[in-house]
Amino acid sequence: MANLDEGDPRHLDTLDRDLARYSNLELATNYVSRPLIGTGIAFLFVVIAGLAAALFFGQANNSFIVIMAACLGAYMALNIGANDVANNMGPAVGANALTMGGAIAIAVVFESAGALIAGGDVVSTIAKGIIAPESMGTATTFVWAMMSALLAAAFWVNLATWVEAPVSTTHSVVGGVMGAGIAAAGFAAVNWPTMGAIAASWVISPLLGGLIAAGFLWLIKSRIIYQDDKIAAARKWVPMLVGIMGGTFASYLALKGLKSLMKIDLSTALLIGAVIGLIIWVVMIPVIRKQSEGLENRNKSLKVLFGIPLVVSAALLSFAHGANDVANAVGPLAAIVQAAQSGDFLTTFTIPLWVMFIGALGISFGLFLFGPKLIRVVGSQITKLNPMRAYCVALSAAITVIVASWLGLPVSSTHIAVGGVFGVGFFREWDAERRIKKARMTIPNRVMYAPEERQRRKLVRRSHFMTIIAAWIITVPAAAILSACFFLALNTLWG
């Protein structure tokens, strides 16, 4: 066989074979994302989840209720994959550190691993302690309330995905539980202090995430980007920044992602993070020095140094999300199964493995079928991201969760991640205006953009900003109203 010339296309195909697999995955995702095909596959998954429940529980009491709940749980899991996972993968894709196919492959593996390995946490009978269980009266009332909450939350997240607004699935479930509880037992059944803390998190989560992301971007700009010798500055600061990221994620996973495997308090989690972060910092010093050899002294060269940490952070965020939010989302399904089979709805319960499988597989299918839409919104349509900015968003997500845990505040991972994107974008706007004013003072006659042109060139798209904020504000009340309506209908038909 003749040797292939380097310019021969067959030679290039051989070299790019592994990358082509990701490209094929991306093409397949784009193909099945077409409305009829994607919807058909999603419907088939819901039907299979119901058939699996019928196979295992066909002879049990209230098997019809369990089958219907399994279908709703599958529908909810699909919507989590379509909407929530975009917050973890969007920044890495928007920064071109990952292709869409690569992001989907990583997210599918790590979301599923997080859900199945560390997601079997014991949860209360009603999500987040929103409703007093004894107020429900009977197991039948409780089952219809949880069924309504699950359906309302899934429907609302589905609608939000359709309008390209990343929303909190946990808040959707909380709103659904609250609405069904009010319809079943009145306003007195609601734990209003808990609801007040959740409402406060609507403001606290994105603001904290945005401020932390903006702070790290300021650090990177002032210590690396604006330095005369950018490569020398990067050799000093990038190992430290990667160490901070590694230590933060170690604390984050110890505190939130592995809580079902072992109980770790905040101080121990921080100590674990500090030790691991220090080790990573030391290890990365020679790695970054070698990686930076031969790089030109310009901003584009710096992107190379942040690529791998960004990919790793996306994977770790996905694992923690699978361990955390999936359990919250499929919690109502587990509650329905226990109440329907045993009539017990006052004690705590453990999420069964088959329920976690529905959650893990549903997230994977939802991400593959419908996820690219929201990934593009978070990654590139709110503001333009590069590896340095995306790094700041990912790091802020982990730090904000740790700070919120220390303060005892309930926060939304969705709000934190998207708030980080907003924070990076608005900081860039502020920094651009600051530099224009500084240049005008230095060179008075220098021609600058007119105010109208600067307004047009805003770095954060205001249309997406307003849509997302509006969706956040109305998530809990919208899910509550939908859930109350569904409960009244179900209770009327089968109560």
Strand content: under 5%
The main β sheet shows up as: 2 strands, antiparallel
Number of strands: 2
Termini separation comes to 76 Å
Q: Helix fraction?
A: over 70%
Mean pLDDT: 81
Neighbour order of strands in the largest sheet: 1-2
Shape: elongated
Give the domain tally: 1
Count of DSSP helices? 17
Describe the overall structure.
With 495 residues, the chain is mainly alpha-helical. The protein has one domain (33-494). It is built from 17 helices and 2 strands. The protein has helices at residues 9-15, 17-32, 35-57, 63-83, 86-94, 100-118, 139-162, 169-185, 192-225, 230-257, 266-291, 299-342, 353-381, 387-407, 413-442, 451-456, 462-494; strands at residues 122-123, 349-350. It has a two-stranded antiparallel sheet. The longest helix has 44 residues, at 299-342. The chain is elongated. The chain starts with 8 loop residues before the first helix and ends with a helix. It is found in: Membrane.
Task: Draw up the topology in text.
Layout: H1 9-15, H2 17-32, H3 35-57, H4 63-83, H5 86-94, H6 100-118, E1 122-123, H7 139-162, H8 169-185, H9 192-225, H10 230-257, H11 266-291, H12 299-342, E2 349-350, H13 353-381, H14 387-407, H15 413-442, H16 451-456, H17 462-494
Antiparallel strand pairs: 1-2
